[in-house]
Amino acid sequence: MKVGILRETRRWTDRRVAITPETALMIQQEYPHVELFVQSSQIRVHTDDEYRKIGISVVDDLAHCDVLIGVKEVAPETMTEGKTYIMFAHVAKEQGYNQPFFAEMAKTKITLIDYEYFTDENNARLVAFGFWAGVVGTYYGFKGIAKRFLKLDIPGPEDCRDLKELHHQLKQFRLPALKIVLTGGGRVASGALEIIGELGIPEVSPRDFKTREYDHAVFTRLDPEDYAVKKDGTFDLQEFYANPSEYISSFQPYLEVADVFIACHFWDSRSPVFFTKEQLSDESFGISLIADISCDLDGPIPTTIRTSSIEQPFYDINPVDLSEKPAFSSSKNVTVMAVDNLPTALPLDASRTFARDLFSHVFPALFGADSDGVIERATILSQGELTERFDYLKEFLAGKSE
Hints:
This protein is about 30% helix and about 15% strand. By secondary structure, it is of the alpha/beta class. Strands 3-2-1-4-5-6-16-17 form an eight-stranded mixed β-sheet. Strand 16 and strand 17 (about 385) form a beta hairpin. Helix 1 (about 20-30) runs parallel beside helix 12 (about 345-360) and helix 4 (about 130-150) crosses helix 6. The chain is globular and about 65 Å long. About 40% of the residues are buried. The mean pLDDT is about 95.
């Protein structure tokens, strides 16, 4: 099997890679029947020479390879007919902006395998960048705190080599006595907690967070039962996941006492919003800065009116009319961080973790027998045709869905 390691061509500034030199060496040792080739790149976090040093051919054209492995979507003009591509394709949830891209893959008889659907028999995801999204997004949150509350500029995560340097930068200033509310409990939240824990910020219960005052920074982490309630006043977690439209927001008390909101939750479009435009303009609204790591446009946080970028991660929202203003331009505004490709700012650590997870959980099935159906469950197109599991995308693929 000839496997090509793609350079990123759709999002030109993405420096991540799915197979690092470390993991490539492990593949060579564990799977001698697999021959690796790496596509030359000027921006990848690992240089061409790092691959050459371990005996991997560096080439411009991967058309001779059987399987092509990247991180994000490839540029349509680079696709090679009939090949197998592994990537985050962003099509299985009927993302409208990628419909033409999806149709082109089908037209060129591509086999598409999506990282998001590499799961075990219990439907738990096997590989993801979520932890690093939490790390980087929360770092941005504290960068925003330094700028908004202390008038200090600290380097962005893209200027730091790794997690250790992020920790170092955050310890260069003393946090004011802020209340920080964090939503979520999965991979993204665990990344956020990595940053908060390194800073030594004490955690308090949701009840104490709402009722007590502190002379130092504190945070609380909320699960769904802390910010949503059934219309009859009860809560059942399984029911909430199954029928979130039956629930309403109970987030109001946190709006009144929190200074900073770090959003790491998973949100279903049927779930209640965290707050409304009307609540935002109310005098009781106390949040000054929102690090929206979940970043759902037209979703549960109305101040997230657009995504932001690593180059310009922040913007302000006027709470009266929800208009956008320059970042940190007024203490009356709400400052928002809504970068939607956070792990790209810390490509070395993010790539290393992702590649190791692929080696442990996916490559045994990809390079051997797929006895547990890992590859099968993640295959959206097979030679241009929708697989049975993803047959629901038929109208979307044809461009007929709304």
